């Protein structure tokens, strides 16, 4: 392990580390050092040389963060999908039940927990950049406590999932089977409550590879266990319980890594975790509202399409386009995580130029990749649907929707990254209001009018909702471009001072 002097860090930074009781650089601290800020401030270089060198420095850090994050989200998605595939081999009723439970009830819990866990991204990221390492463990414990409590009302929804699904128009047979699957997912609620704070805790320190390895190993175990319990005849309940167990394996694996490796940022369980929970709840709630409004937006698109005159073709074509969009979205989510980490780290470290430059690099990188997929979508617009179904009517409908899908893919290269920037800066409440206005006041009503009043069908519904996304993206772009990054550094400094309470002895040392 290299010492401060070996790294050639300046004396004030060395003293900052030593004040926190650290004699060596913690994991990934090199990425949040002043290297990028020094390059951007080096007037000995020409502007082109300065930006070229800075782009190389930032790109290396960015893709080390984004690539494993993408893999983690993809693997977690595949874990749930593999359960549905196995259930599909039990019969059509079981496939419908597992799909409804996973994409309906379970998605609600996933969105709420992931959203509330995003508060940890802001606080841990900025605290890590400011070298307040002892606070990271406190923040992750506070978040876990709040998410565990939040799991209780979600538990009630899971318990009463059958009457809820019947009330929403599902048949008794499908609702009964889906409810059985949901009962097996109850332990997963609290796995989410522990996983997302832990995941954000690690990401804020640029530690992403271990989560990818743990998710990959868990997927292998999950597939074997699911096959085994179905062979035993445990059916939907057994498959769901295995899915819950797999999420707990991920949680335990990551926590063991934290306890054994993150010595500077994890100092054991502490009573300080119970201080300031109300303010933490307000930030967590804003984060949850912001993310859930985005997650539910395109789910509503499918629900509205079910009321069209020819719903079968509309739903099939929208399902195919939504599947493609969701898989490419996983890439954008990786850049979302990278943007949040980079911006929060640099703001916490007091590097306004680096924070602003990180936003530019991560946004352009994501847009380029999204544009490539958009072009492929247009080139293969007549062939895409045949990977899912052989119907010519659906193929024609998908081809007709392809231009809208391509635009959505490009926007998905921008919007999630800007949301990541918002999380890194702590703008969750503002973005929640923007999402309400753009998505639910403009996008959905306009889509409904175009789809039903003007008889444009699925294309009209998507066009209206796409308009809401464009509006939201423009607003976030405008706000980001006009951001005073020096002021954001001061806001981050004040936020950390507010959130850092008086030091207390840990409740339990590891």
From TrEMBL:
Record InterPro entries = MATE_euk, MATE_fam
Q: What is this protein called?
A: Protein DETOXIFICATION
Q: Which organism is it from?
A: Forsythia ovata
Pfam families, per this entry?
Answer: MatE
Q: What is its main location?
A: membrane
Compartment(s) of residence: Membrane
Topology versus the membrane:
Multi-pass membrane protein
The record's Gene Ontology cellular component field reads: membrane
Give the family this protein belongs to, as stated in its UniProt record. Answer: Belongs to the multi antimicrobial extrusion (MATE) (TC 2.A.66.1) family.
Q: Where are the transmembrane segments?
A: 61-85, 105-124, 136-160, 166-186, 207-230, 236-259, 280-305, 317-343, 355-381, 401-423, 430-454, 460-481
Coiled-coil ranges from the UniProt annotation? none
Keyword list, A-Z: Membrane, Transmembrane, Transmembrane helix
């Amino acid at each position: 392990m290299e010492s401060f002097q070996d790294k050639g860090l300046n004396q004030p930074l060395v003293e900052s580390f030593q004040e926190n009781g650290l004699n060596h650089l913690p994991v990934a601290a090199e990425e949040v050092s002043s290297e990028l800020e020094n390059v951007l401030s080096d007037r000995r270089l020409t502007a082109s040389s300065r930006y070229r060198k800075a782009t190389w420095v930032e790109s290396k850090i960015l893709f080390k963060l984004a690539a494993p994050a993408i893999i983690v989200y993809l693997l977690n998605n595949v874990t749930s999908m593999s359960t549905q595939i196995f259930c599909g081999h039990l019969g059509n009723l079981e496939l419908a039940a597992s799909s409804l439970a996973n994409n309906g009830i379970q998605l609600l819990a996933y969105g709420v927990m992931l959203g509330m866990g995003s508060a940890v991204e802001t606080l841990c990221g900025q605290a890590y950049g400011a070298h307040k390492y002892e606070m990271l463990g406190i923040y992750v414990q506070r978040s876990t406590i709040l998410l565990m409590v939040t799991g209780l009302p979600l538990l009630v929804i899971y318990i009463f999932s059958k009457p809820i699904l019947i009330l929403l128009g599902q048949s008794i047979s499908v609702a009964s089977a889906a409810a059985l699957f949901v009962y097996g997912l109850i332990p997963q609620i609290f796995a989410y409550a522990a996983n997302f704070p832990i995941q954000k805790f690690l990401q804020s320190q640029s530690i992403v590879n271990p989560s990818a390895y743990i998710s990959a190993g868990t997927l292998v175990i999950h597939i074997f266990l699911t096959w085994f319990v179905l062979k035993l005849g445990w059916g939907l309940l057994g498959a769901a319980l295995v899915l819950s167990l797999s999420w707990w394996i991920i949680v335990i694996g990551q926590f063991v890594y934290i306890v054994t490796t993150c010595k500077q940022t994890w100092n054991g369980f502490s009573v300080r975790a119970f201080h300031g929970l109300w303010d933490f709840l307000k930030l967590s709630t804003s984060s949850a509202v912001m993310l859930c409004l985005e997650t539910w937006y395109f789910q509503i698109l499918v629900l509205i399409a079910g009321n069209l005159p020819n719903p079968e073709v509309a739903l099939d074509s929208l399902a195919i386009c939504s599947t493609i969009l969701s898989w490419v979205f996983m890439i954008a989510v990786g850049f979302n995580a990278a943007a949040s980490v980079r911006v929060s780290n640099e703001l916490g470290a007091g590097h306004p130029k680096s924070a602003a430059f990180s936003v530019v690099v991560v946004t352009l990188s994501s847009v380029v990749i999204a544009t490539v997929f958009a072009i492929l979508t247009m080139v293969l617009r007549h062939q895409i649907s045949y990977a899912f179904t052989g119907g010519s009517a659906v193929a024609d409908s998908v081809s007709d929707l392809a231009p809208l899908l391509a635009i959505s893919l490009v926007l998905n290269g921008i919007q999630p990254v800007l949301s990541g920037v918002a999380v890194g800066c702590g703008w969750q409440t503002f973005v929640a209001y923007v999402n309400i206005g753009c998505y639910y006041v403009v996008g959905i009503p306009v889509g409904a009018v175009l789809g039903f009043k003007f008889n444009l069908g699925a294309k009209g519904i998507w066009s209206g909702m796409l308009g809401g996304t464009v509006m939201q993206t423009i607003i976030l772009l405008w706000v980001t471009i006009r951001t005073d990054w020096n002021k954001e550094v001061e806001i981050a400094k004040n936020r950390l001072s507010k959130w850092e309470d008086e030091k207390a002895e840990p409740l339990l040392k590891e």
